[in-house]
């Protein structure tokens, strides 16, 4: 159990460290870094490499934004097997819709209760 927490911390920390290096050294904007991480997660899932990373690191691989790219491709490939080209479009939205919907709902609730400082 301790090893599971250790590897989740190491892998998640490594992904975050790469993002910080992209901010500080490469001088990429947050939007560029976010987009690049989503694409990296998508490519790794397309190559079949992200699921083993999730099996190894657990939350260390599912919490960072790279997991969103993984979810998009994973859903698209799964539904493409069942429904063809239409499944590619519906699959990526089906898998990620609950997380996006939750973010919208909780963001709205937060906006109702808290005042912006801007």
From TrEMBL:
It comes from the Bacteria. Keywords: Membrane, Transmembrane, Transmembrane helix. InterPro entries: Spore_V_AE, SpoVA. The chain crosses the membrane at residues 6-26, 33-50, 95-114. PANTHER family: STAGE V SPORULATION PROTEIN AC-RELATED, STAGE V SPORULATION PROTEIN AEB. This is Stage V sporulation protein AE. It comes from Bacillus aquiflavi.
């Amino acid at each position: 159990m301790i090893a599971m927490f250790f590897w989740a911390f190491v892998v998640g920390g490594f992904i975050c460290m790469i993002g910080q290096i992209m901010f500080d050294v490469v001088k990429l904007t947050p939007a560029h870094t976010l987009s690049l991480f989503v694409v990296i997660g998508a490519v790794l899932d397309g190559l079949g490499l992200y699921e083993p990373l999730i099996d190894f690191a657990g939350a260390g691989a599912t919490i960072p934004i790279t997991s969103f790219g993984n979810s998009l491709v994973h859903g698209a490939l799964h539904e493409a097997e069942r429904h063809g080209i239409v499944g590619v479009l519906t699959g990526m939205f089906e898998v990620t819709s609950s997380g996006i919907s939750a973010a919208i709902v909780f963001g709205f609730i937060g906006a109702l209760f808290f005042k912006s400082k801007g």
